[in-house]
Write a structure and sequence with these properties.
The protein has 108 residues and is of the alpha+beta class. The protein has 5 helices and 5 strands. Belongs to the guanylin family.
Length: 108
């Protein structure tokens, strides 16, 4: 029983280290997988809003208090919606990134 418990804890610890080290890259941006996973919970908030300066639309999710701070720099990009859409695909099935099924994932 003790051997099984020790083995299970070692396996969980290894998985946690591997998952924590995975990064997702989109163009010049690189984000921790854990930050990308948080987008799944914020998905319904992604209706565009217009900048006050009359510039391009910024996804509303960027101003949400639970939006990961690591992803904030992409909100200033003109193609922020496109980038978020690609990251959402990874957030929907993060296991694919953890085994590096997406070309954008590294650190597996």
């Amino acid at each position: 029983m003790d051997t099984f418990l020790l083995s299970a804890l070692c396996l969980l610890g290894t998985w946690a280290v591997l998952a924590g080290g995975v990064t997702v890259q989109d163009g010049k941006f690189s984000f921790p997988l854990e930050s990308v996973k948080k987008l799944k919970d914020l998905r319904e908030l992604q209706e565009p809003r217009t900048r006050k300066s009359g510039g391009p639309a910024v996804p509303q999710v960027c101003s949400h208090q639970k939006f990961p701070k690591e992803l904030k720099p992409l909100c200033k990009e003109t193609n922020a919606r496109e980038i978020l859409h690609r990251l959402e695909a990874i957030a929907e099935d993060p296991r694919s990134c953890e085994i590096c099924a997406f070309a954008a994932c590294a650190g597996c």
